[in-house]
Amino acid sequence: MGDISTESDAYDAEATAAVERARHMETRKTWLRRIGLVVAAVVAIWAVWYLLFGRNHVSTDNAYVNAEMAQVTPLVSGATIEVRVKNTQAVKRGDILVRLDPANARIAVDQAEAELAEARRRFRQTVATNTALSALVTARTAGISQAQAQLYSAQAEFEKARIDLKRRNALAGSGAVSGEELTSAHRALAAANAALATAKAGVAQAESTKLSAQGELAANDALVQGSTEDTDPGVRAAKAKLEAARLDLARTVIRAPIDGVVISSHVQLGQRVTQGQPIMTIVPLTQVYVDANFKERQLRRVKVGMPAKITADIYGGSVTYHGKVAGISGGTGASMALIPAQNATGNWIKVAQRLPARIELDPKELTEHPLRVGLSTEVEIDLSGD
């Protein structure tokens, strides 16, 4: 009887174990089916997402805010007498940033004004000299007429003396003319001949003097011909020098070239700054953009003008910026590095390169939520927007 009871208990235990194994297998199959369904659902969802959305979007978190910053540099040298701004201060275009000592510039302006007045005086003097030389030419013309009249008189006297001598020579053989008279006639002819030569020389001298006066008039007239006091080259050069001096004086007041925020200001009161020396930088917060570094394969379909969405770490996902692709760099970041990577040893390993794409942002959104240069962002480009 005890043996039968023992066998029955063993049989019941084996049956119970079989039932447990069957139940476990069924539970396992159920979970496997569930996991398979979940995996299939995930794959289906991913496939739908990729077909409808994923394949038409590329994104990267390797993106940073950048801007065309304005470097403020003095255009003249001088000592700093006033500094009106400091780092982090917002400025508007035209606001005064720094004042330099204007003493030397004012002296240069006074000197240039004096040189302009002197140039105007020289031009008026040249015009007056032109009038005087013109009158001198007229006087020299009258002198020639006077010398020619004297020449005619001398020629008449010479002809009279020659005829008198000829008559006396004809009468000398008959004794009607004394030797003294004949000698006097010879003297008179010689004197008339000398006067004639003097008159001829006077005419030549008068003509030469007129030519000299005409040359001086022509030379002086060339200085003012076709010019007025304002168009005279000397006056214009003096004007240009005065304008340059006034410009240098105006440049002693350094103004903001753009709207933005001052950074990297390192100018101090009393410091002497030199022309072209950077003294501060201004960042235009309303004109910042994003440089997004995409992998080369991501840029196959990216074109200029495609829309993009940007989120910045500073605001998180609560703020979304809208922009568009403004351009793609002509070289990778590695190729544009100060020391480009070179490998001539043969142990080359291919690394996916990144190309910077510039994303322009909506100015209104930037006004509402300003960004600073260097902040991290995430960029997503809609490839269906081509």
What does this entry look like structurally?
Among the domains are: 62 residues, OB fold (Dihydrolipoamide Acetyltransferase, E2P); 142 residues, Helix Hairpins, CATH 1.10.287. It has 386 residues and is an alpha+beta fold. The mean pLDDT is 82. α2 packs antiparallel against α3 and α2 runs antiparallel to α4. The strands form three sheets. The chain has a six-stranded antiparallel β-barrel with strand order 1-10-13-12-11-14. Strands 2-9-7-4 form a four-stranded antiparallel β-sheet, with no helix packed on it. Helices cover 49% and strands 19% of the residues.
CATH topology of the domain at 105-246: Helix Hairpins
Count of helical regions? 5
* CATH architecture assignment of the domain at 105-246: Orthogonal Bundle
Using only C-alpha atoms, the radius of gyration works out to: 54 Å
What share of residues is helical? 40-55%
Largest sheet descriptor: 6 strands, antiparallel, barrel
Question: In which order are the strands of the major sheet placed?
Answer: 1-10-13-12-11-14
Mean pLDDT: 82
CATH superfamily of the domain at 105-246: Helix Hairpins
Low-confidence stretches: none
Structural class: alpha+beta
Topology:
Blueprint: H1 2-52, E1 57-66, E2 70-72, E3 78-83, E4 90-91, E5 96-100, H2 103-171, H3 179-224, H4 233-250, E6 253-255, E7 260-263, E8 272-273, E9 280-283, E10 289-295, E11 307-312, E12 321-328, E13 354-361, H5 363-368, E14 376-382
Antiparallel strand pairs: 1-10, 1-14, 2-9, 3-5, 3-8, 4-7, 5-6, 7-9, 10-13, 11-12, 11-14, 12-13
Helix pairs in contact: 2-3, 2-4
